[in-house]
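Figure S7 source data.
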Amino acid sequence: MADTIFGKILRGEIPCHRVYEDTHVLAFLDIMPLSRGHVLVIPKEPAETMDRLSDDAAAALGRVLPRLCRAVMKATGCTAYNLLQNNGPAAHQAVFHVHFHIIPKPSGEAGLGIKWPAGKLDAADAAALVKSIAAALA
Ligand code: 5GP
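Tokens for the predicted guanosine-5'-monophosphate complex:
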């Protein structure tokens, strides 16, 4: 995969405001926060998107995310937050190294704005989807 700004942060070539680190995971403040306390959580494994991440790296991220969410909420006083993970340019990914955003949602405009164009689940398509996703998992 191509080198990214997060690879440079992991190698210590550019600085970050580190809030947590262990063998597999690094968390630091987003340089352009959507709200106060916006944190990025990245695996040290250099996968571009979630579907390319190993089970071990994913497990390491999953193990620490709830603790980081609690810490960000405690530090900011926010009780609401979004956990966001973008994959691919069409899904708003700008840095091609897997990352989770922890974005506190204070009252008012700050934080993540979401457009949610909900549709209706078609019964026949639901059956087809279940079949094809199950087949892909097998
Ligand atoms: P994406 O759109 O890929 O999900 O989000 C990438 C995030 O990385 C953005 O929120 C952006 O502000 C953040 N970011 C980009 N470059 C840097 C950097 O050099 N340092 C830090 N701390 N965050 C960065």
